[in-house]
Amino acid sequence: MKQLVKHLLPALGFLVLAQAALAGNPDAGAEKVAICAACHGPDGNSPSSAFPHIAGLGERYLLAQLRDIRAWDRETDPELKATTGRAVPEMTGMMRNLSDQDLADIAAFYDQQVMQLAGSQEKEVRIYTGELVDSLELGERVYRAGNLESGVPSCMGCHAPDGSGNPPAGFPRLGGQHPEYIADQLRAFRSGERTNDGDTMMMRLTARNMTDAEIDAVANYIGGLH
């Protein structure tokens, strides 16, 4: 037993050092994000709804997404479809050669930034009956209570009542995000186009029974949530 411990201790020490080395350094990350700024803004607040805000999303979530996008990119071939990771064609080639430490530093940098509110709009959405209903009212109801009739769970259970998320659990901040981006991601999860929500399929199971009206309404509500 003593011999086993003797041999294990150096290995465990190496493992601890390796994990410490992978801790994100926001100062180092600041030197590595120039390639990101064109789309996501210098502080992670995208000026265009075509690209998400990534400021303050949560370091664990950001790092997981960066790794998934890199995994897909590395497996992508012009004539083949990747089977792992997260497909973000706009980022093809950008992270392929970045190390785990690079990604950790970038995630740490953006997590320290403050997300700006994209904002919500006063508008109506058409539900299944053909009626036009208040988008913010419907969005708030779905975000906070889900839809028991159709089996849609509430959003705030994971993403918090104020949309701030749960960083230790890896659930991202949603409040203030571009509504168009939120709606696109919910539809991608609903269709199975996006699958990097883990073996539990948490987001796919959440979005599968959401109507277009519910998606648009909850996305609009989230845009102004803080």
Q: Indicate the percent of residues in helices.
A: 40-55%
> Tell me, what's the shape?
globular
- How far apart the termini lie comes to 55 Å
The count of DSSP E runs of length 2 or more, i.e. the number of strands, is: 2
Radius of gyration (Å): 20 Å
Give the CATH level 1 class of the largest domain. Answer: Mainly Alpha
Total count of domains: 2
H/E topology pattern: HHHHHEEHHHHH
Largest sheet: 2 strands, antiparallel
* Helix segment tally: 10
CATH architecture label of the largest domain: Orthogonal Bundle
Residue-averaged pLDDT, rounded? 89
Give me the side-by-side strand order of the main sheet.
1-2
Judged by helices, strands and strand pairing, the structural class is mainly alpha
- Specify the CATH homologous superfamily of the largest domain: Cytochrome c-like domain
Uncertain runs are: 1-21
Write structural notes for this entry:
- With 226 residues, the protein is mainly alpha-helical.
- It folds into two domains: 2-111, Cytochrome Bc1 Complex, Chain D, domain 2 (Orthogonal Bundle); 124-223, Orthogonal Bundle (Cytochrome Bc1 Complex, Chain D, domain 2), CATH 1.10.760.10.
- It contains ten helices and two strands; from the N terminus they run αααααββααααα.
- It has helices spanning 2-21, 26-30, 34-40, 59-75, 100-111, 135-145, 156-159, 179-191, 202-207, 212-223, and strands spanning 124-126, 132-134.
